[in-house]
């Protein structure tokens, strides 16, 4: 069956109404660069947002941009760049990890709440999303939020749609608040620290007044290099210089860093953002864990006794990317057990279909939250037409 | 005074008042239950004092378990519940109903844990906004959202309303600064949403709870982000000969890639009122004033200020006055943050809270003046200019029913205007009861229906704060 490709929101609504009438679920797709994400879905009919493109609003002086959901991310980023602006949360590009081609769409970024290293300082995609339009499972075109950055009018469906992986609606248009592109960037690279020392350094940096906007630790072997601990500073040139020096003094006990600027630094942070270090071996499973930052190294220690893996940290230690053999449950039970004491969640980002069908891809929910999630799903999609089972087998 | 309708109390609940009180008395000790008419009177309104309703009773539980027991009891007995923080809501979010109990969390006011390494504080929900900063300021940390009522308002109320403040241009609002909550559902079930880690592993339920105005559950604990204070901060006063030049300056600053931590606007009347109260050194011979605060290291402050002053000059600024001391800085912010209270000294007022695209500022301000003039009223304008969140204070005499009606009419017209130009009804105060009946100006039926279906997924029988947010007609249950 060829994919449905609505070119207007009204068409999308009509397709969903028809699917609901026929009782035939739909699978949503943007640029197809995250094929392999979430639980596999048994649905014959694909609906793509690729016909819904175009930037619909950009007011540089109001720090706001709107685009239809199928608009390629590069288009939005180019438009912003021309005005000296960026999407502050550094959207993650998962093509290297999934080995996919094509162009990520803004709708795909929103559906997965895909935020990169700067998330630790300025917030996630969900924090910068201020408006959405979507079609719910009744075939109704719904709007929430808008184009102004302070808005508490009614329930915040914007947040709920961000990271819902298309299970609560087919996104048709999204609006972000944006920020000026930092004038200058510098990265301090410390060598030779083990995980605990590396994360201790990042903690000191993040609790300093020097506005760190990237904090990653790469254990030895990551990207074929020795251990590296990265601290990024951004802003006006004089301020970045001052803060680099101040941080270096503050962190003197960790040794003398190399100061990285320009394309090399950009490349390094892109590798961190997209977890490119874990792209190979391709047959391995990839996990993304979120936990309190200072708990990161202890969690990794606990796992060491249970599992073979390679890993690195972002978000000051709170985001752990981890690659395991794609056998058994790919380490699911051990990983979720190890998370337990400090809280957080683990998502199985990459694994063969069979494994993702048999192992919970998203962190399993406590019974009360699962029941609530099912009621919420039904409140948007009473007949389970929209990406059914993408996040949870039971919802 | 009856412009805003409340649902008629259910007689079947009112006749059971004694039984309901007996039931509650089994769940909490006597000092946690307010039943006498005199004492209940303290809870009959909030910051929207023109409206009052006497609740059946007020429960003031001490912990999550007691909250759970009370909600379970109310759920089983069909009793409505109006959650309450400190009662500072400006939109009537905490105004009771005669057939409801008030559930206040003010006794739950302990800081449970501060973890500087992970940059979080875990607090009971009745802790005041400023108490969080107070608990961590010795280590040079702070909690960022800073509503003007921060001395009194609770974190529970901030979460309910997704409160903002003067510094959210840089730091965001409550939803960007809360990482987790413990919440009691209407049936007494206790759930934990989020935690000390970033982002949700499933649906962003925390994102929907923040700003839900006490309609989805009762939050008893919160884990919030605390941030390290900047090395320094300097507010600067900019006086302008016209509203337009002040508005154009704001747009030009942001368009130039500068994001000060705060850009606050005051018009002539607001300046006069606040200066008379706070003696902050505001310029009195100008039509509009901006308070622009920049922060960071000295190099950062000077680099930013230099550019901002340059931009202001090209737009005809007539006064530039930099704070020279911590005392001056405190006075400058005292003047701004007491704007509502200071205005209350000279007249009664209703405070609007619409947000508009900042590019429309000059025309909207002009239109607000015209609307007021048409009805023979005056407005003082004081607002967060960087993000377009307006707070026109429409002045009137509360003892003159005709004038009060005019003021409410003007207020509604202003909010419709905000929606018309691409903005919204409320930027940080919430819908409450005040803007409930205006929701149809911003939302279509399908938009509101979807919100109500979601609401019903949490509270199928509409027992939690039911008179608020959604128009009384056309409600959707589970």
TrEMBL record, chain A:
Cofactor (UniProt): FAD
GO molecular function annotations of the record: FAD binding; glycolate dehydrogenase activity
Annotated keywords: FAD, Flavoprotein, Oxidoreductase
Gene3D superfamilies recorded: 3.30.465.10, Vanillyl-alcohol Oxidase, Chain A, domain 4 (1.10.45.10)
Entry-linked PROSITE patterns: FAD_PCMH
Enzyme Commission number: 1.1.99.14
EC category: oxidoreductase
Ranges for domain FAD-binding PCMH-type: 1-181
InterPro entries referenced in this protein's UniProt entry, alphabetically: FAD-bd_oxidored_4_C, FAD-bd_PCMH, FAD-bd_PCMH-like_sf, FAD-bd_PCMH_sub2, FAD-linked_Oxase-like_C, Oxid_FAD_bind_N, Vanillyl_alc_oxidase_C-sub2
Keyword Flavoprotein part of the UniProt annotation: yes
Protein name (record): Glycolate oxidase subunit GlcE
Organism: Lichenifustis flavocetrariae
Encoding gene per record: glcE
From TrEMBL, chain B:
Domain of life: Bacteria
Domain FAD-binding PCMH-type: 51-229
PROSITE patterns with a match to the protein in the record: FAD_PCMH
An annotated Gene Ontology molecular function: oxidoreductase activity
Cofactors demanded by this protein: FAD
Sorted UniProt keywords: FAD, Flavoprotein, Oxidoreductase
InterPro entries with a match to the protein in the record: FAD-bd_oxidored_4_C, FAD-bd_PCMH, FAD-bd_PCMH-like_sf, FAD-bd_PCMH_sub2, FAD-linked_Oxase-like_C, FAD-linked_OxidoTrans_Type4, Oxid_FAD_bind_N, Vanillyl_alc_oxidase_C-sub2
Residue ranges of coiled coil: none
Keyword DNA damage listed: no
Protein name in UniProt: FAD-binding protein
């Amino acid at each position: 069956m060829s994919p449905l490709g609505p070119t207007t929101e009204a068409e999308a609504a009509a397709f969903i109404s028809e699917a609901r009438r026929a009782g035939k679920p739909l699978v949503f797709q943007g640029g197809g660069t995250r094929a392999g994400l979430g639980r596999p879905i048994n649905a014959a009919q694909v609906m793509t947002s690729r016909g819904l493109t175009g930037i619909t609003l950009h007011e540089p002086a109001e720090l706001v941009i709107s685009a239809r959901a199928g608009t390629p991310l590069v288009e939005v980023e180019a438009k912003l760049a021309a005005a000296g602006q960026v999407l502050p949360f550094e959207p993650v590009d998962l093509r290297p990890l999934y080995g996919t081609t094509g162009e990520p769409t803004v709708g795909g970024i929103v559906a997965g709440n895909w935020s990169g290293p700067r998330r630790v300082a300025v917030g996630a995609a969900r924090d910068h999303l201020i408006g959405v339009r979507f079609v719910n499972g009744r075939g109704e075109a719904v709007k929430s939020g808008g184009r102004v950055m302070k808005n508490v009018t009614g329930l915040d469906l914007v947040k709920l749609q961000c990271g819902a992986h298309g299970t609560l609606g087919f996104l048709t248009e999204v609006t972000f608040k944006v920020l000026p592109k930092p004038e200058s960037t510098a990265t301090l690279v410390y060598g030779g620290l083990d995980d605990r020392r590396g994360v201790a350094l990042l903690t000191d940096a993040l609790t300093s007044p020097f506005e760190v906007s990237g904090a990653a630790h790469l254990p030895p072997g990551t990207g074929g290099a020795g251990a590296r601990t990265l601290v990024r500073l951004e802003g006006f040139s004089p301020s970045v210089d001052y803060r680099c020096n101040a941080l270096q003094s503050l962190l003197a006990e960790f040794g003398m860093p190399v100061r990285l600027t320009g394309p090399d630094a950009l490349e390094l942070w892109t590798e961190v953002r997209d977890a490119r270090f874990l792209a190979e071996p391709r047959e391995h499973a990839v996990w993304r864990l979120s936990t309190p930052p200072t708990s990161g190294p202890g969690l990794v220690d606990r796992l060491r006794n249970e599992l073979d893996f390679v890993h690195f940290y972002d978000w000051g230690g709170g985001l752990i990317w981890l690659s395991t053999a794609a056998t058994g449950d790919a380490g699911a039970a051990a990983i979720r057990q190890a998370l337990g004491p400090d809280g957080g969640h683990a998502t199985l980002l990459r694994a063969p279909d069979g494994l993702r069908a048999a192992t919970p891809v998203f962190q399993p929910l406590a019974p009360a939250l699962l029941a609530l999630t099912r009621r919420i799903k039904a409140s948007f999609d009473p007949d389970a037409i929209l990406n059914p089972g993408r996040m949870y087998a039971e919802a | 005074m009856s412009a805003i309708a409340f649902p008629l109390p259910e007689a079947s609940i009112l006749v059971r008042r004694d039984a309901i009180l007996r039931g509650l008395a089994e769940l909490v000790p006597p000092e946690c239950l307010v039943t006498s008419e005199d004492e209940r009177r303290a809870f009959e309104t909030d910051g929207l004092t023109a409206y009052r309703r006497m609740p059946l009773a007020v429960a003031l539980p001490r912990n999550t378990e007691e909250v759970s027991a009370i909600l379970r009891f109310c759920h089983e007995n069909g009793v409505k519940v109006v959650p309450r923080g400190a009662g500072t809501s400006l939109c009537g979010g905490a105004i009771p109903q005669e057939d409801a109990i008030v559930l206040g969390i003010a006794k739950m006011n302990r800081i449970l844990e501060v973890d500087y390494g992970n940059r979080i504080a875990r607090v009971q929900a009745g802790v005041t906004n400023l108490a969080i900063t107070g608990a961590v300021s010795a280590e040079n940390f702070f909690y960022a959202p800073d509503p003007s009522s921060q001395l009194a308002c609770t974190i529970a109320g901030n979460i309910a309303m997704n409160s903002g403040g003067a510094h959210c241009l840089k730091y965001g609002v409550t939803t960007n600064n809360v990482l987790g909550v413990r919440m009691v559902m209407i049936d007494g079930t206790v759930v934990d949403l989020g935690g000390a880690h970033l982002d949700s592993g499933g649906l962003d339920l925390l994102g929907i709870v923040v700003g839900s105005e006490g309609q989805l559950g009762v939050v008893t604990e919160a884990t919030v982000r605390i941030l390290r204070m900047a090395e320094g901060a300097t507010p600067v006063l900019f006086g302008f000969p016209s509203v337009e030049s002040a508005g154009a300056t704001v747009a030009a600053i942001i368009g130039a890639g500068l994001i000060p931590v705060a850009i606050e606007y005051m018009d002539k009347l607001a300046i006069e009122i606040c200066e008379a109260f706070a003696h902050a050194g505001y310029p009195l011979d100008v039509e509009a004033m901006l308070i622009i605060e920049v922060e960071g290291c000295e190099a950062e402050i000077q680099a930013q200020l230099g550019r901002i002053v340059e931009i202001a000059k090209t737009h005809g600024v007539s006064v530039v006055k930099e704070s020279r001391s911590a005392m001056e800085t405190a006075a400058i912010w005292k003047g701004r943050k007491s704007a509502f209270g200071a205005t209350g000294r000279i007249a009664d007022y209703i405070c609007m809270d619409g947000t508009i695209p900042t590019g429309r500022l000059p025309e909207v301000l002009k239109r607000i003046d015209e609307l007021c003039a048409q009805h023979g009223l005056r407005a003082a304008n004081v607002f967060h200019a960087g993000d377009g969140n307006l707070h026109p204070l429409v002045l009137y005499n509360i003892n003159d029913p005709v004038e009060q009606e005019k003021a409410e009419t003007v207020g509604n017209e202003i909010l419709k205007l905000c929606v018309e130009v691409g903005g919204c009804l409320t930027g940080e105060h919430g819908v409450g009861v005040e803007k409930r009946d205006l929701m149809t100006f911003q939302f279509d039926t399908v938009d509101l229906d979807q919100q109500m279906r979601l609401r019903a997924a949490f509270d199928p029988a509409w027992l939690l704060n039911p008179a608020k947010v959604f128009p009384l007609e056309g409600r959707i249950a589970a």
